[in-house]
Amino acid sequence: RARADTDFVARAASGSSWITVTSGGTGSGNGSVGYSVAANTGSQRIGNITIAGQTFTVTQYAPGPISDIGTAVDNTNLTWTTSGSAAWYGQTAVSYYGGSAAQSGAISDNQSTSMQTTVTGSGQVSFYWKVSSESDYDFLRFYIDGSLQNSISGNVDWQQKTYSLSSGSHTLRWEYSKDVNMSGGSDAGWVDKVEV
């Protein structure tokens, strides 16, 4: 919100198509102007709103990669690796918690991509996951020490999963895999808020 603290008789207008004045477009005296911005799917952009002859700058950053998976899944205490036909990566366009999540790398038919970490000690692992894929053919799977624990397919919104861990060292792996043909949805899996 932009606020004018002096008396005014003015109009508020946006000079950018992605910025919309939602309230207070005209008025007199003290007042407030509300505005909204459209989702940004490209690069950083800068626009302006003019209120009572005064220009305010609005900067909208681009969604995009996060420097590391640990930051994306809200757990930088673990060491993360990726493997397969494409690397998993951190991004800000789709998330459950904290504004970022890990997303499976873009793969073709009959390929897979995975991310993993190793933990030591007994306790629990919990995480949120989501998938948008060809239902019953392309899957997001979770493994503990190479043993499949669960899988989701189709359009599944964020779900929390929790698993017990016995004492010792354990490899936790999330894998997105595709069958031999066709695609569906966004053709990706996401993981967020990993807690051990």
Structure in words:
The strands form four sheets. Strands 8-10-11-18-13-16 form a six-stranded antiparallel β-sheet. Strands 9-12-17-14-15 form a five-stranded antiparallel β-sheet, with no helix packed on it. A four-stranded antiparallel β-sheet has the order 4-2-6-7, with no helix packed on it. The two termini are 40 Å apart. The model has no long low-confidence stretch (mean pLDDT 86). The chain is built from one helix and 18 strands. The chain is mainly β and 196 residues long. Strand 6 and strand 7 (54-60) form a beta hairpin.
Helix/strand class:
mainly beta
The low-confidence runs, each spanning 5 or more residues with pLDDT under 50, are none
Strand content: over 45%
Using only CA atoms, what is the Rg?
Answer: 22 Å
Major beta sheet summary:
6 strands, antiparallel
Distance between the termini: 40 Å
Side by side, the strands of the main sheet go: 8-10-11-18-13-16
Principal-axes geometry comes out as: elongated
β-strand number: 18
How many helical elements? 1
**What is the N-to-C order of secondary-structure elements (H for helix, E for strand)?**
EEEEEEEEHEEEEEEEEEE
Q: Fraction of residues in helices?
A: under 10%
- Average per-residue pLDDT, rounded, comes to 86
